[in-house]
């Protein structure tokens, strides 16, 4: 599939803006979507919830009519100049029009 540079730049811009506004210190968030498929960030819980301040999560949505595998995808963070994998996706798929 062709790379979607528009989607990649849009996601990067949104996450960079959120990181700059909401995260303390020198934390930088970057998202690089290496697929032309219709996976988007649907919801983001970055400050925790009423249940716990550690209740942080990200929800991805599949806006296509086909199942999409997240095998090989990762959500990374960069802190103090070192890149670390925060979440790696193995054997995870999002169903069509699913989360």
Describe, in plain words, how this protein is organized in 3D.
- The chain is of the alpha+beta class and 99 residues long.
- It has one domain.
- It contains 1 helix and 7 strands; from the N terminus they run αβββββββ.
- It has one helix at residues 5-22; strands at residues 27-29, 39-45, 57-62, 68-69, 74-79, 82-88, 93-94.
- A 3-stranded antiparallel sheet has the order 1-5-6.
- A hairpin with a 2-residue loop joins strand 5 and strand 6.
- The longest helix has 18 residues, at 5-22.
- The protein is globular, with a radius of gyration of 14 Å.
- The relative contact order is 0.19.
- Mean pLDDT is 71; it is low at 1-6.
Lay out the secondary structure.
Elements: H1 5-22, E1 27-29, E2 39-45, E3 57-62, E4 68-69, E5 74-79, E6 82-88, E7 93-94
Antiparallel strand pairs: 1-5, 2-3, 4-7, 5-6
